[in-house]
Amino acid sequence: MRFFFFCILLTQLSYAIPVGFNQAWFNNDYSRQYLDGVYDRNEVYRILQLTKEAGAQNLRLWFFESPDFPMLVWDQNKLMGVKEDFIQNVIETLKVAKSQNVKIYMTFLDAHSYRPDKLNKNELLRLRNIYQEDGGAEFLNKVIAPFLGAIKDAGLSETISRIDITNELDTVVNRFGFNNGWKGATRMLCQWNSFIKAIDGFSSVPVTFSLRLHRFLHLPHNILSDQGPMRCADFLDFHSYANSGKIYKCDELKLYSQTHNKQLILGEFGQSYFTHRFDDALQTSNTKNYLNSAIECGFSEALAWRLSDIRPGVNKEARYSFEAYGSTRPAYDLIKDHNSNL
Predict the structure, then answer these.
(1) CA 178: distance to chain centroid?
(2) Which end of the chain is more exposed for a tag (fewer CB within 10 A), N or C?
């Protein structure tokens, strides 16, 4: 009988990591979600309430994600600063998050907006400049410092759980966005992490780059090394999309988590990019398998992509979303039950 209860205990412990969500942008207003005339406080409240109801501790949101940067002030191509309405609406969002006891995992830039094949010359130069040392310093001083400073002055810095400088940074490296490839990326990570830590209220907020993780992607051989390109990362955030819910390089990740002090976060997970069907059964099995895999591979938290897409009609994001077409899906309840047993 004791053995039976011990087995039950082990089963419960095997689901002992918290599960949160990505939302990235509210109402699918990519890059404009926090600007006056677009910002929707009711939707922000609804999403954060939905996050709380699932027992999620973290919601990952994006803030400076597009190549045209509509939230910034420009004089020709000269960066001047951040729009005040953007800052105030972000602060309002953080107030709502605090009221719901949900932490915000901030992501600043989106590497997938770096498209030399699609951007015009001015957009490409603006964006590429940010990934270089001098341009990065300008962005830090004119954008990140006043942005995070305003959050601190509003008494909301503790609402920020983590900061991801660039979503899936490997994309910028692979598209030659840095002068020196991964060496340039490493320099940026160290530069930005050090700068953020020096801002009052953010000295203890963990900072990283997030990365993709799949068999077709080439990452540096020493990505899991204290001397590798992620040496200035406070934690590692990998993203995985596979119908099986199996995490690539599981053995290496598990060994890393056992021998280093840095956390591993599964910052995004979901069904394969190549599976376009809207399938509740697939999403449920995929979610369950990813949670088991995350624990097996040494991850300390998992964030599902993504919480909500309530647009009518067919859209490609709905297949990933845990609320779609006006209602939550079975996998949302799976995560809710999972978190209730933590």
Answers:
(1) 21
(2) N
Amino acid identity at 214: H
Torsion of CA 283, 287, 289, 293, to 10 degrees: 150
Q: Which CATH number fits domain 2-340: 3.20.20.80, 3.50.30.50, 3.40.50.800, 3.40.50.720?
A: 3.20.20.80
Q: What are phi and psi of 54, to 5 degrees?
A: -85, 0
The model carries a pTM of 0.94
Q: What angle, 0 to 180 degrees and rounded to 10, lies between the N-to-C axes of helices 41-53 and 84-99?
A: 30
Nearest one of 78, 61, 66 to 24, comparing CA atoms: 61
The distance from CA 337 to its chain's CA centroid, rounded to whole angstroms, is 23
- CA 307 and chain centroid, separation: 12
DSSP designation for 159: G
Give the chain's residues under pLDDT 50: 1-15
The residues spanned by each domain of the chain are 2-340
